[in-house]
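Run folding on both entries below.
>entry_1
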Amino acid sequence: MTMHPLEPLSAEEILRNRDVLQQAGLLRESTRFPLVQLEEPAKSAVLEHREGDPVDRRARSVLIDVKTGGLTTAVVSLTSGEVVSETAVDPVEHGQPPVMLDEYELVEKIVRSDETWLRAIHDRGFDDVTKVRVCPLSAGWFGVAEESGRRMLRALSFAQNSPDELPWAHPIDGLVAYVDVIEQRVLEVVDDRKFPAPAESGDYTDEQLTGPLRDTLRPIEITQPEGPSFEVDGHEVRWENWRFRIGFDPREGLVLHQLSFRDGDRERPVVYRASIGEMVVNYGDPSPVRFWQNYFDAGEYSLGKLANELVLGCDCLGEIRYFDAVVAQEDGTPRTLRNAVCMHEEDFGVLWKHTDVFTGSAETRRQRRLVVSFFVSVGNYDYGFYWYLYLDGTIQLETKATGIVFTSAYPEEGSSWSNELAPGLAGPYHQHLFSARLDMMVDGTRNAVDEVEAQRVPISADNPHGNAFTRSVTRLSNEAEAGREADPAKGRAWHVVNTERTNRLGQPVGYALHPQGTPVLLADPQSSIAERAAFATKHLWVTRYAPDERYPAGELVNQSRGGAGIPAFAAANRSIDGEDIVLWHTFGLTHFPRPEDWPIMPVDVCGFTLKPVAFFDRNPTLDVPPTRSTGSHCCES
């Protein structure tokens, strides 16, 4: 049985990958697998693939020797059982693989046995170190010679008075340990200032905080007596006019492949591949203990491996179709994440409506959307990624941030870098910035990007009353000029158009990217984080498609120096006019935590919309039937 080239790796394939590497002599007792991914074929090969064609299935592994720190990448042909390539990686030049789950426990053990750290903890009044939780965090890179090439984590601490208490309410602040996980020792302890650990509980299920649970919410039941409108064949989904494939990557998490829309008798491609390529959470506290706090949750922690196993009625509501995900554990064996991806339909109010004054007719059609989502937990924060497909051809991504604010002590004199959440407890200012990688394919691979914005027109002979306004359209011709920022005051949008196809009116068919236009990276342009997260300094980048250009901040992000990723791609300054192009869109949240965000943060949302512009000849939802109420009248919202 042949399979599609983009089918996610199965448990059997992950085991075969390990066996091939073992037989080739590439594995030792001290070898770990920070990352195992499907080696996706080039776009051209996938587009040429036909059902039944043979597929050379390949897996790409990042290997680390936890005794020596040696790094290797290896590509295995799962079809032939051969190692296709093996490459040694210099961590000084390229950075480190993602943080591994077993390193969390290791770092806590190392730190709790360090004499300098123990003295600092005892000086703060903590005699029982088993009640101090050590929180290992990615180290970043700051040009310190002694740290170059080391595999490091930096560790902050929290008090936990009992095993079931949430420790985030009790930061032991002013103290951080720098840990080498290969040498298994503390390199340095920074003891800057003693703060009293806040005492108030942060357990959001504590009845003393919540009071009695309300009993006023009546049940909501969502039913589809005839079943859902979508059809699933393996990982291929058909819903209304949409067709696409669901993928899952241990680094990016949910991936949507080959999104197309059926228009009459034509299957029209829109997006070849859509994913969250990277995200960075950068903190604004410049203190000696916290200046280094910035986290790349995809490249440093592997979003996909942290996916939740979703629960019906809690995470998803309605007629649900779940997809499991299989990821490789650090020993190279598979782990199945049950219900990692959720798919369902939602009513979304009015699609279109008109009551006509002349004919007296009244028509209403209801909008519906298909929701494909997954949720991840990254330490204290939780993120939901919701892809929406609408009946009218619109695509939308909504990211939901919730969980627990990463806390610090709040100084008596106040702070310019944080807000007080509870007595003595602070929420540092920070940003959550996401980079969506949108490998576009609007009616084919010959695409270009026009920057379109509203334009005022001054009073003149042509505009004597001053009421006129128009729009400006600027073609982005090369990569160097395609690093752009949003401008909400001008309604700036970016239209991805096909340079070879037009609609019946002669207009180029296209899709418009509508950004929310929230702040990009607020760190100083000369800072380390601005160098490492350069992708987050613009709302939009456009590059020429290349199969090896996958990640906004580069291949190995952990402890990388920066300069890799999108800026390096764009430096080639290739033409993007009428080419096979990729859009990289930065969006996010700038968070000044409120008392209402404690002890758990209500969902905050951000995202973007892709909307058809001249892609269709007319409204593509004229054939949506009216929904009838019991009185046989069109329902209205």
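>entry_2
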Amino acid sequence: MLSLALRGMRTRWVTFVGSFVALALGVGLIATTGLALAATFDAPERGTERFAAARVVVQGTDELKADTPIGVRTSKLTSPRAVPEKLADKLATVGPVAEDRTFPVSVPDADRRVGADTALVGHSWAVAAATPYRLTSGRAPAAPGEVVVTTGPGAQVRTGDRIQVVTPGGAGTRTVVGTVPAAGFESAVFFTAAEAARLSPRIDRVTVDADPAAVRAALGTGSGMAVLTGDDRRRADPDPDRDEEALVSVNALLGTAAGITAFVSVFVVASTFTFAVAQRRREFGLLRMAGATPGQVRRMVCAEALVIGVLASAAGCRLGRWAAPRLASWMSGQGIAPAWFRIGEQAWPLHVAFWTGLTVALCGVVVASFRAGRTGPTAALRESAVDSGTMPWSRLLVAAAVLLTGLGLLVTALVENPGDVLKRKTYITQPMLLIVAMALLAPVLVRPLTRLLTWLPARLPGAVGMLARENAAAGVRRTAAVAAPVIITVALACSLMGTTATINEAKATEARTQTRADYVVSAGDAGRALPAGFVRAARAVPGVTVSTSRSTGVTVLEEGTALVRSEARAVSSGRELSEVSRLPVVAGKLTDLDDDSIVVNEEWLTTRVGDRVPVWLGDGRKANLRIAAVLSIGTGNNGVYLTARNAAGAGIDRVDIKVAADADRAAVDRRLRAAGEASGVEVLGAGQWIDAHYPRSSESTRLGLLMILAIALVYTGIALANTLVMATTDRVRDLAALRLTGATKPQVLRLVAVESVMVVAVGAVLGAAVSAVNLLGVRTALGLLDVRSTIVVPWPTVGAVIAASALLAVLAATLPASFALRTRPVELAGMRA
């Protein structure tokens, strides 16, 4: 059987080359994404960065610990406690100390002026000795208005320059008296100790040049302070978990890409192998006529698949090994992954890719091989081009089961928890079952859909439209095999991009509905605060209601075993919040929010107004707060609300301003914008602020989705080309018959092109049907969550995908046909099938 299989492969090399390329590319994509995914499991080992020269660092505890029946559970605090000034004075009796204060600052054109590649922060120069910063020019700041700046690549600032610096105290001009090289982990501006204390009274940490045991003794027990020495000093670095956190998003993205790649590969390879076997019915009939048993035919088909599977999987692993570093480099360059992200030496992704490819190759022909074995000897005598038996009962039952399962899961999610439908994992995986069901049902749907789409072209003058319709309707297997890659590409493009855009639009609509404010001012980057001067100036404007809020968090122990942290907003008062917002309250009243209460949403286990819930605040303090009101879940942005007293350590990062009906709006606008200009912040109308923040995904998310879509499109394009090349080369006798009946070469090529475009249209319609179900599910989920928004269809993306598929289909069909038509029609008609 092996020798017969090898001879058959040599004779029908076009068919087997197409299967080889499809499988090799699929394995290559799995290996590429697998190697990149494996590289996200371990972050690089980093030592202490900022306080490497400090002997001891004292800071507030940044971790919450809770004893549970199954062990100690931990959670990061959003606002670790400050070091009390009395405690800092006490530490000074143990040894030399330096108080560290970190606060947000900004410099116009910071990336050009000082070469900053991260958000700028302010520090006291007094702590510089415990850090890697050393002067490369100038001197230390000695008076108010003098600063030392870090300078990165391309920095244009020099000693003696005067620069505009926005601090928590407002905007002002500072003189650069010294520069230090950028350390890589932050971009900083250093002030004198006195000015830093004025700008940021909070002491974030203290460095102590003393024995750690003496420091612990001075602190005593129950101080809430952490004494950091050795490697633990890294906990005082800026964003010490940034490497792990960066890899979480990369891991999620690559995990999704790997899952979609595996699905697309298995789906298309199985379809390609099945079509390749179905093309050879007459060949199998001749073998049966020559005396081959059904078992021998099956073994020959499986032997062919084994040979192709081994060779293609090995080639795909080699391709993946080559492509993975280039994928990692592109992701780093686009900001999707950290700059240090590199592919390691892991071998297991290659093993997974190889054995997956081989398994897919064998499984892809199992069912087809049984059908091949059942081919009767009389099949060799058939001349009809009409496919028959394309939809056996077994396939129909499997398709119905997959379709009902996909629809059932969607309906179940809508009934039990509509919010789950809006999660990325759900709306990315949800279409998979529907795509499989649509592909399985394609042989049933192709013929009526083809006749529907070609109803008008078939009635136009000329025979091209009618012949294209009849050829596609007669060759159901060929049409279904070509449509399958288009189905998956269109469905993924519309589902991924359309669902994301629809959810973004829903969030924007929800934000517009929930705000009563006329102006919104925010600090921008996470962890930054608005200048206190602007807040005072805004409150001084007559005829306005000002509601300030802070980003914080609360943590609850759910079911006695799990610490769950929720993002929260700490507002000035419930009354002011109710005047500037229109939150979806389902129980209670926002005006009842005070220092002893909390506003929660329906996701919380306890949602009865008046009940008390034990929580840990952002700085680790425990509180037992009364539920004042309950909000609906919405799109997920309806979080928790506290008062400012329960958000110690968090700065004001958002101000909502409502103008009274009888106020002079023009005067209010002038005063607010003047205050913003003096403080270095941008004052936006509520609509402008929502437009700037809501109706868009982050750049990394957008690029990630485009990367996933590009992987699917590239692979689908190759599979589409392979299938059409195999199908067209197998139709040389049909083309010769057309030539013998009087058709010219351009007419035949035009027929082939029109038929290819029509088949792509069939696949696009079926893919659009899958997308419509998915988007309808998202729209229904939003309605159940009381969010009214329109469905956003990414027409440019879907149009580009369909156009690219049509172009590839036309090229893949007409090029081999044009080569075949170079031979005389009489010779083509006499060629063996």
